[in-house]
Amino acid sequence: MSKRRLSSLVLAALFPFGALIHPLAANADTLDDIKSRGTMTVAIDPTFAPYEYTDANNNIVGFDPAVMDAVARHLGVKIEYQRMSFSGIIPGLLAHSFDVEGSALNVTSERAKRLAYVVPTSKTVNGALVRSDFRKIPQPATIESLAGLTAAVKSASAPEQILKQFNETLKAKGLAPIQLISVDSVDQTVAALMTRRADFVFDDMTVLAGVIKQNPGKLKSTGELGPSQWIAWATRPDDTRLNKAISDQILAMKKSGELARLQKANLGVTFDTPTSDFIPAQ
């Protein structure tokens, strides 16, 4: 038998096996990888109490970790947290540096172009935090009352984008823009406020309430300002099975009342979160 004939027979014999392997390899995705490893790598910025922060023993705790724990139990895996600054989370997710992001992420139409949100777990309403002796911003605050002032805000966050939108409004009215000091953490925004480098901090009202509690008599809220937004985690757009697995567990927790219980315990309030059609229009 010729070598060419022998090679053809060998290839013919191997082909059905190869045909079976290829679809399996093609269908493997992040959810399969997570279950195979037994761990889910989650990126988080634990500087955003009460959503995610560290306790006295440096354990990551808060509302988001509590919900993520339930998701991991449902999948039968353990969580391996990867700590990083908030500004690095979306780039890291898209670069496949971890499996999923687990920090509170405001749902915006712009982000939805690059990410796939799971169903929301909470809702955010923003506001301005000032020193107790600061009188330039009334209660309730208005966009116009922020003109010419300096704001401290987390870099790459939804509140930062809202302030930029406020500046468009101020520009159209011929008013001075808000000067932005963009930093990596809530603690850094508060430090800028307390050292008078900033006139106000702009962030989620629930987060600001915690900051006021930690600094009795020194700080005050000026009320809600700007649009409310849903809060959700995100996966890569091609991780549809992982996205659905996480969403299904959150929906099950919503139905059982567990999600509302965790909201009340960690955030002090409850929200009736949507099950679909929650991405805002452009």
From TrEMBL:
InterPro entries: Solute-binding_3/MltF_N
Annotated coiled-coil segments of the chain: none
Superkingdom per UniProt: Bacteria
Keyword Signal among UniProt keywords: yes
SMART domains: PBPb
SUPFAM superfamilies: Periplasmic binding protein-like II (SSF53850)
Signal sequence residues: 1-28
Solute-binding protein family 3/N-terminal domain sequence ranges: 39-270
CDD domains: PBP2_AA_binding_like_1
Keywords: Signal
Keyword Flavoprotein: no
Name of the protein described by the UniProt record: Amino acid ABC transporter substrate-binding protein, PAAT family
Organism, as annotated: Paraburkholderia xenovorans (strain LB400)
